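Form 7-S
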Amino acid sequence: MSKKILVTGGTGYIGSHTVVELQKSGYDVVVVDNLSNSSIEVLDNIEEITGKKPHFEKFDLAERDKTDNFFKQHPNIDAVIHFAASKAVGESVEKPLLYYRNNLVSLINLMECQIKYNVPNIVFSSSCTVYGQPEKLPVTETTPRKDAESPYGNTKRVNEDILHDTISANPNLRGIALRYFNPIGAHPSALIGELPLGIPQNLVPFITQTAAGIREELKVFGDDYDTPDGSAIRDYINVVDLAKAHVVAIERLLNGKNRQNYEVFNLGTGRGVSVLEMVKGFEKVTGVKLQYKIVDRRAGDIEKIWADTTYANEELGWKAEEGLEETLHSAWNWEKRIRGIQ
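Output:
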């Protein structure tokens, strides 16, 4: 009998790609999402890719009674992958209470139910934002966490603490926190990808929407950073590579290969790329000229960060495979499909 995995936020960007990889690996998937930043149609596209539609339930994990009732109705869950969270840095600066309520309460409710209903395994969607602006690059898993630059980043830091402390107090629980760098791109089928509701908060969907004529111009937040071209540097990772890492992490927990009950891994490529390099890279790959304007720095943004991926490569047994050009190409193919562009 196949193992059953609960994926919270499973109709979202990273969640949907992970559901695809889990189903391709033979897992039985249950998705919970409140659809606050995603669309129910994603489930049909997952089915088109994999031949199977995951079971879906719509509710907000911040509602304790509904979360408890869900676990009561699904007594045979083997592991949880927790994506469900608000995730825009800029918005979190403007609406900190929204982020603290959504991101902290949902994890607390989830872990209380895991303990109550004996669901021992959790993979948590964390972020390199927990490192703040590191003094030394690249960052390893032992790089000290810093005070966050945004409420969003702080929720990831506090959630890691909730995870660590709860697992320490409950020997039957096991968890892995995956600290993502910057996920981009789309599934090669162009059936699922990043589709933010409203104005995009992340770089690549803003690039593709500008290229498609949805946005008048791309805003580049700052060109006076201490970087070669003055724009901020990030470690951009293909979303399918990222999704596959979750399958590896789940298998590590289910097979008892974890060395401690709580583990942390960086998920990146090990290469830093600037915003302006991304703009030029997209233009080169697609042949589309982008309208962009340099504007002031954005609150909550850091200057530069990229990963040391040695530990994830060697200990987790996972490595990013897709190159930046292929990844940008997949993002543009996704944008063209949803906009009906030939």
